[in-house]
Structures are given as C-alpha cells and as structure tokens.
Design goal:
Mean pLDDT: 87
Largest sheet: 8 strands, mixed
Helix content: 40-55%
Number of helices: 22
Distance between the termini: 75 Å
Number of strands: 23
Strand content: 15-25%
C-alpha cells in the first residue's frame, strides 16, 4: 500500500507539473502573439512609389477594425480594417504621392447601403485629386456596382455577370409553422408600423409595412439610380426603364448602355494599370491593401492636447456586458461613456451609431449616461447603416444628429413577445406542467401556459408605457411636440433623407461632417481624433467564448459558417428566446434590400 501511494503521488505530481508547463506554454504563446501584435501596431508599412491602393468591396466592413493576434499562424493580415479606417485611408491616399490610383475589387457585397454610400462618397472625393480609380469584377452585384459607379473605369469579365435589376425585399413568415408546431405567440406592440413581430403573427406583409417598405426602397433606389446614371452619362428615368424591361442581361448589354467601360480579363486590366503607373509590360504591379496602408495614415494634429473622440456603438443593444464582437452591451458602453466624460482632454464626443435597437431597458440606461456626458461636453451623433428604434433612442438627445441619405432610422415603437409552448409540449411530447404559487402572478411570465386576459392587459400596459416614454424622450431631445412625434412614430422606419424632412435628424452628412460639427461646438480648430473603445482582437473573442458558454459559442460559430449570409435570419429567431416578455425597441425584422 505504501508503494502504491508513493507511485500515485509521484504520478499526480508529474501530471500537475506537466499541466503547469502546458498552461505556461499556451499563455506564453498568447502573450508572445499579443506582444508581436502590439509591436507591429502603429508601425508604418513601406510603400513603393507608383503603388495602387486595393479595396475589396466584397469584404464586410464593420464600423471599427479588429486586430488579429493569430495572424502569425495564417496568411491573414494582423489587422482587419473597419469603415473608418477605410475612409481615412482613401482621404490620406488622395495627397500621398506614392499612391497613383485605386483598384476596386468587385463581387458581392455584405455591407449595408449607408456603408456603401459612405465609401462611394470617399471615392468621389478622391477623384478630385486627378488620380484614377479602376474597378474590376467577374460578378458584380448591385451593391458593388453602386460603389464602382464612382470609378473612372469599370471593367467586367467577358463571361461574367452584372446586376442592374431594381430592389426587392423578401420576408419569411412563420405563423403557419408555429401553428403546425402548436406554438402560440403572445405578442404585444405599440405602433401600427411596428412590424418586428409580423413574421410570427401574420402570413404576409401588412398594408402599413408594405407602405414603409415601398417608401424606403424608393429612396434607396433613387440614390442608386442617380449614381448609375452619372457613370453611364444618362438620366435616372432611363435607368428605371432599363430595369423595368430587364435590358441588362449579359455583359455585352452593360457595355452597350455604358454601365461598364469594357469587357476584359484580369491580365488585361493589369496591363492597363501598368500603363497608368508607368511600368513595363512584364513588371509587377505594386499593390498595397488597406489593412497594410492604414498604419501610414496620418490624421489631425499629432501634438494637440485637444481630442475629439469617436465612440463606436455597433450591433444589437443588450442588457449588461457585451457578449459578441459586434453588440452594444449597456454595461460595457456605459463604462466607455464615463471614461470619455471624465477625460478633460476629450473636448467633444461623436457617437457613431450603427444599430437596429434591442432592449428597451438597456437603451434607456445608455441614454441616461449620454445625457450626463452631454452636460459636460458636446455630443454629436453620426448614423451608419441603421440607427433605428433603440438605436434612434440613444441618439435622440444629442446636440446634433447627422445621417446619410441611405441610413435607416426612426422605428419609434415598442414590442414584446412570448411563446406559449403548452400545445407543443403536451400534444407532441407528452409533457404537462403543474405547480403551486402564493400569488396569482407568481409564475408570470411563463412559456408553459397561455397568458390570462389580466396578464395580457398587464403586458400591453407595459408596452404602452414604454412607448409613451420613448415618444417623450424624442420630444425632449428633438424639441418637437409629443403629438408631432406620434405622427412620425408608430414604429415606422425612414431613410436618412426622409428623416431630415420630419426633423428626426439635423442634417445629411458622413462621419467627417459630424467630427467637424463637434469641433465647432467645442470651439477648437487644432485637435486629434481618437477612437473608443480600443479595437478588439480575435483573441479577445476567443477568451470571451471561454468565459461564457464555450460549447454554445462554438456551435453558433459552426452554424454561422454553414449558413453564411443567412445566419442573420437564424440569429434573430434564436434571439427571441432572450426577450421573454421584455419591452423591446428593435426595428422591423431584418430589413434586407437587394
């Protein structure tokens, strides 16, 4: 027995030592990766003369970029640029003598229409330098073409494809599915346009929802058609006629109507780039991508003590700490707001909102903290693809609000949803429930039975109260009567251009316009622009998964890889379980215009 314990404890000690060594090696590798990433952060990339800046339009550009500490183990860049990085790089390249032009790589587009519009605007400004912009694609989507229309020359593969066909919004409806599964949705909402729950309570688009979809499609298409017409040197009625008659079916049609400037293979495009940059026929074209070029970009005064902060708020609004890479956790964002409020070097804050909304409670907590910041320094809002429902709620008290024409905003309305699974569990699975309670509402809310009429009235009263609060907050921030707010609220979404006409925003303009407004309100001309929070890292995302439910996170990642762009549908349906009777300020179910 003595020998057994001796062997046992010796083996145990060896296992502990081995475990410590392995953990140490892993932590050392992680620290090394972080140190390497940190050492490369801010280090300029050597740019050759006569270089071409390459922009991949098919890439998804979030508001803020992200570091990648794992780049050493892959061919990926150590940093993935965000929209802000991209637009700043284009602005700097305009006066950089080493950059002779821009090449746009076209394909599909995973970006929203306001993101595409901001990129388009940056390219139009770049052209004033006299430098050329080339665009090439083998398959060009409408979103990619919208950006490319700013180019001097657009080239399409001779056997490729191009989409100029008009916009469509297609929504799925699950009412019949729920009926077959014997799942009863318990839905309460305020605002006749508040269509976020429509897929669960109807089998087709309602008349109010159809009206608002037609309205924002019209505004978005007007921007697209205008850009396309300018490149083709025609007018928007002609573009509309081509789409109505399906005139653009083949690459030759795009050339015939001057929507593209030629049908070329990639090697032929490269030869034109060589000619443009003064290189010989066999000489390699000097490309530089945005991710590498960003470290060379210089903006604002580097010596000024005055700072204007851009605070990025992207994603669904949720209670508590941020759990996903692109999510607005109320606790997490409030911490950033307080840091900016208490930093005397920060003279003004630009809140960059790209959010369809979410939790009503979280939205109100964030607005409260923004008001405390606003009491000390100017607060300007710049809207991205979406600043709707809760996304508009957190913006409505700013000193000034700027949006792009293609921004989706408004959606001033509230809803709540519960699902009664009693029929499914009892009739399909044989599960029944019983219980004992000390008060009539002790088990409220519940998914094991339908709500009583009294409980339903309680839910609706809660939603109506939240809706009244929403309207009063907007009334106070925008300095318009509650009655006028109600007339433009009702859950209806608006484009930025329409929002200007009804005073939901102050002016049309991009992020740079908002920064300029902030500097004027702060009465400073010499300042440095800083961004908050610090760019995330894929390592942070990995650690966040381990901190939470790693198995669930890994499954979510696997589903995302399988579904691709359709993952957003899954994400929104799966997110319904977290609502559980909460008051939600979220815009209509996944607005998708293609």
């Amino acid at each position: 027995m003595k020998q057994f314990f001796k062997m046992f404890f010796a083996s145990l000690l060896a296992m502990i030592i081995a475990g410590v060594i392995i953990v140490g090696l892993i932590m050392g590798a992680i620290i090394g990766l972080v140190a390497k990433a940190s050492s490369s952060e801010g280090k300029e990339t050597k740019i050759n003369s006569a270089s071409i800046l390459v922009i991949d339009v098919a890439k998804k550009y979030h508001e803020q970029g992200m570091n990648n500490s794992f780049a050493s183990f892959s061919n990926e860049s150590s940093y993935s640029s965000g929209l802000y990085d991209l637009t700043q790089a284009i602005k700097y390249a305009k006066t950089d003598d080493k950059i002779k032009g821009i090449l746009l790589k076209l394909g599909g587009s995973a970006n929203g229409w306001a993101t595409l519009q901001q990129l388009h605007m940056a390219l139009v400004d770049f052209k004033t330098s006299g430098k050329a912009i080339y665009a090439y694609g083998e398959s060009i989507s409408q979103g990619a073409y919208y950006v490319a229309s700013a180019a001097d020359s657009i080239y399409l593969n001779p056997v490729g494809s191009i989409e100029i066909k008009g916009f469509a919004t297609v929504m799925p409806f699950f009412k019949t599915t729920l009926e077959k599964l014997e799942i009863q949705p318990e839905i309460y909402y305020a605002g006749k346009f508040k269509s976020a729950t429509e897929p669960f309570r109807a089998d087709k688009i309602s008349d109010p929802n159809r009206l608002q979809i037609q309205a924002y499609q019209h505004d978005l298409w007007s921007e697209f058609a205008s850009a396309a017409a300018k490149h083709a040197r025609t007018d928007t009625p002609t573009i509309n006629q081509w789409t109505a008659t399906d005139a653009i079916q083949f690459p030759q049609d795009a050339v015939k109507y001057k929507l593209v400037d030629g049908l070329l293979y990639w090697d032929e495009v490269e030869q034109r780039l060589r000619t443009k940059t003064g290189q010989k026929e066999k000489e390699e074209v000097k490309y530089v991508n945005v991710d590498d070029y960003r470290n060379n970009v210089k903006s604002g005064s580097k010596i000024s003590e005055n700072k204007i902060a851009i605070l990025f708020a992207e994603g669904d609004i949720a209670d508590g700490e941020q759990e996903d890479d692109y999510q607005i956790g109320s606790k997490t964002l409030v911490e950033s707001i307080r840091k900016l409020k208490d930093n005397d070097k920060i003279k003004a804050v630009v809140l960059r909102v790209n959010s369809p909304g979410g939790s009503g409670l979280a939205s109100d907590i964030i607005l409260r903290e923004l008001n405390l910041l606003k009491a000390k320094k100017p607060l300007i809002v710049s809207m991205g693809d979406y600043a709707a429902s809760g996304g508009y709620f957190i913006a409505c008290h700013a000193d000034s609000i700027f949006a792009l024409p293609n921004t989706i905003t408004g959606s001033i309305g509230v809803f709540s949803v519960l699902f009664n699974f009693q029929g499914l569990l009892k009739n399909k699975l044989g599960v029944t429930f019983d219980g004992v309670k000390t008060a009539p509402y002790a088990d409220f809310p519940t998914v094991s039975r339908p709500l009583s009429p009294e409980e339903g009235a309680r839910m609706q009263a809660s939603i109506d109260t939240f809706y009244s609060m929403f309207k009063s907050r907007v009334s106070l921030g925008r300095k318009i009567s509650v009655g006028d707010v109600d007339s433009i609220a009702q859950g209806r979404v608006w484009t930025g251009r329409a929002a200007l006409n009804i005073h939901l925003i102050d002016a049309l303009g991009n992020l740079d316009r908002a920064i300029l407004s902030a500097s004027r309100m702060a009465k400073i001309t010499d300042y440095k622009v800083v961004t908050y929070p610090e760019p995330g890292d894929k390592l942070d995302a990995l650690m966040r998964r381990f901190k939470g439910n790693s198995a669930s996170a890994m499954m979510s990642t696997a589903i995302k890889e399988q579904l691709g762009s359709d993952y957003e549908w899954y994400k929104q349906v799966a997110g319904l379980r977290k609502m559980n009777g909460k008051a939600m300020m979220a815009m209509p179910f996944l607005i998708n215009v293609e």
